[in-house]
Design goal:
Blueprint: H1 28-44, E1 47-52, H2 57-65, E2 69-71, H3 73-82, E3 87-91, H4 94-103, E4 108-110, H5 119-122, H6 126-134, E5 140-144, H7 149-153, E6 157-159, H8 164-173, E7 178-181, H9 184-194, E8 198-200, H10 213-222, E9 227-230, H11 236-239, E10 244-245, H12 248-257, E11 262-266, H13 272-278, E12 283-286, H14 310-319, H15 328-347
Parallel strand pairs: 1-2, 1-3, 3-4, 5-6, 5-7, 7-8, 9-10, 9-11, 11-12
Bound molecules: 1,3-dihydroxyacetonephosphate and iron/sulfur cluster (SF4).
Iron/sulfur cluster (SF4) binds near residues 146 and 302.
Length: about 350
């Protein structure tokens, strides 16, 4: 099976990574009062929180306390279609809010901060991507969830990390050649696992790209009993050392399912909130990044996910600002690629939810 060259001729935009926001610290009483005010607003507006594991632990706790959802991007997308809430408040990044709106056009979808984007989304502009697809008309276009609505509208399939492998395997078995965008590390991993003929877009996640294989080797020597859990947006030399490669939900499942007492985790450290909750006695160690002296990108915490807080969540519920809108023509096309994934998940019993959630 030929592996297609990674590089292509397009000039991609430089990603501007924002500094992490500094939210005012809250005392216990202040935090409890703020959470209570948000709960009242959610009730009054028949609104529900749909949160990703990478956002602040206080938001994850609140989503849980109010009967909302904390999940990976696959389950976040599915969950929105099952709730009878009138408003989905998506605590995560922009593509998650857009996916919710595309699937639920009749619902109001709010986000605490509309500038919470993603380096993968930013690195795959719809016009350049469309030209790239036009140059390879014989290929099925598979895009990662971490893309704009317009890129999804150009795709045949949207996938998340929790379902990419079985979908690409299915397409490969049907004899289809694939364009994969935007994450080159996840795309290469999928290509290697399935043997499919995959042409890769040159995108990456600024957070996962910082995990370092050489430093992980050293850390493993210090913790020989630890299982290594890796999100597939990480570089190849990190993936090669993994005991488990998977979506955020798959990595959390591994912490509860494996007998190990120690885990080295190569993904955004927001995930530790749920891991600690489900396995309080296990030791979780963040996989090494470029470390001291490196930039804010090296802190294993997504600067865009960090834009979500209790503070701006309350504000958005008061003001009703930050409603997600999607152009109707784009929505009509994008919904096909997303719904294909949800139908495939239902047919093959693939879920991004944790047991009991
Ligand atoms: P999951 O779909 O695994 O939750 O990942 C989303 C993401 O943005 C990872 O960086
Ligand atoms: Fe995007 Fe990476 Fe942030 Fe996930 S962690 S939202 S892929 S920038």
């Amino acid at each position: 099976m030929t592996t297609q060259p990674l590089k292509h001729a397009l000039e991609l935009p430089r990603i501007k990574v924002p500094p992490h926001p500094h939210w005012p610290p809250l005392g216990d009483a202040e935090k409890a009062a703020l959470k209570q005010r948000i709960k009242t607003l959610l009730d009054e507006q028949n609104a529900v929180l749909v949160a990703h594991y990478y956002v602040d632990g206080d938001l994850q706790a609140l989503a849980e306390e109010t009967g909302g959802c904390i999940a990976d991007s696959l389950e976040m997308a599915r969950y929105g279609t099952t709730t009878d809430a009138d408003t989905l408040v998506v605590c995560g990044v922009r593509f998650m809010g857009e996916t919710a709106k595309i699937l639920n056009p009749e619902k109001r979808v709010l986000m605490p901060d509309l500038d919470a984007t993603c380096s993968l989304d930013e690195g795959c502009p719809a016009d350049l991507f469309s030209d790239f697809c036009d140059a390879h008309p014989d290929r099925t276009v598979v895009v990662y969830a971490n893309t704009s609505a317009a890129v999804k509208a150009r795709a045949d399939w949207m996938v998340t990390s929790g379902i990419a492998l079985p979908i690409v395997r299915h397409l490969h078995e049907r004899g289809e050649m694939i364009i994969w965008a935007p994450d080159k590390h996840l795309g290469r991993y999928i290509q290697q696992q399935t043997g499919a003929d995959v042409l890769l877009w040159e995108g990456s996640c600024v957070v996962h790209e910082e995990f370092k294989g050489f430093a992980l080797q050293r850390l493993k020597r210090l913790h020989p009993e630890a299982a290594v859990l890796v999100h597939p947006e990480s570089p190849e030399d990190v993936l090669q050392q993994a005991d488990v490669v998977g979506s955020t939900t798959a990595l959390i499942r591994a912490v509860t399912a494996l007998p190990n007492q120690e885990f080295i985790v190569a993904t955004d450290d927001g995930i530790f909130w749920k891991m600690h909750q489900l396995a309080p006695d296990k030791k979780l160690i963040s996989a090494p990044t470029a470390g001291a002296g490196a930039t804010c990108e090296s802190c294993a915490h997504c600067p865009w996910m960090a834009k979500n807080s209790l503070h701006n969540l309350e504000q958005v519920l008061i003001s009703g600002a930050n409603a997600i809108t999607v152009d109707p023509d784009i929505r009509a096309k994008a919904v096909t690629s997303i719904q294909r994934m949800l139908d495939f998940a239902a047919e093959h019993n693939i879920s991004g939810a944790l047991p009991g959630s």
